[in-house]
Amino acid sequence: MSKIRALYTVVSVLGLVLAFIYYPKIVAENTAFNTFSYVGGVATFIGLFIAIAEIFNELWRARSIQEEAVRLLERVKNIDHVAAISHCLSTLDEVVVCFEREDYHGALKSFRYFRRMVISLYKRFGVQPDDVRVAASKKMGVLGELEALLSSATHTTEKAPLGNAQRILFRRDMLQIKHQIETHMHVEGEKYAA
Fold first, then answer.
1. Predicted TM-score (pTM) of this structure
2. Could you tell me if 41 and 19 are in contact, meaning their C-beta atoms sit under 8 angstroms apart?
């Protein structure tokens, strides 16, 4: 039983007791009509009080249900966010594996997918990676440079392979991106676990 129901039950019983105690003082003539009117008035007053109390009880319950729904919705959004970040990391791993096998077409395809996921994260969750801020200032950014490198790598041949310096820079930049995402995921994960 809710607190409001307990309160209006106590008040109703108290009202009945007071109505019974003060009946002789309020009703001057003890006729059947006067008694019936008095009992009807008391019952109406108690019924009105219970109806108003029930309205407040339902409002309180609706508000608590709404608050719980908002909390659950936020939790689902947070879980979705962490899952999306985890998916980004898996896609980056796939890019690296393709790159190491010199499957530059596969690496480029996976990298473009990763880049779309980053944009999606930005739109859905307000994540603003450094590259998005750089892109807004009309510069290529790290992601753009990596995509350009992978795109040019698709045109390499055995006689004209990708240079060692480019391979080292690519690996370094990929590790930095992964580190940034993992750091973000760690911070967000702690926030969402709470």
1. 0.59
2. no
Closest CA to 3 of 46, 47, 57, 51: 57
Lowest average pLDDT, out of 107-111, 161-165, 184-188, goes to 184-188
- DSSP 8-class letter at 158: S
Positive/negative CA dihedral, 81, 82, 88, 91: negative
Q: How far apart are CA 137 and CA 133, in angstroms?
A: 7
40-73 burial, b if ≥16 CB within 10 A, otherwise e?
eebeeebeeebeebeeebeeeeeeeeeeeeeeee
192, burial (CB in 10 Å: exposed 0-12, middle 13-18, buried 19+):
middle
Band the pLDDT of 91: cuts 50, 70, 90.
Answer: very high
Sign of CA dihedral 124, 127, 129, 135: positive
pLDDT at residue 176, rounded to an integer? 86
Q: Is 131 in contact with 123 (CB distance < 8 Å)?
A: no
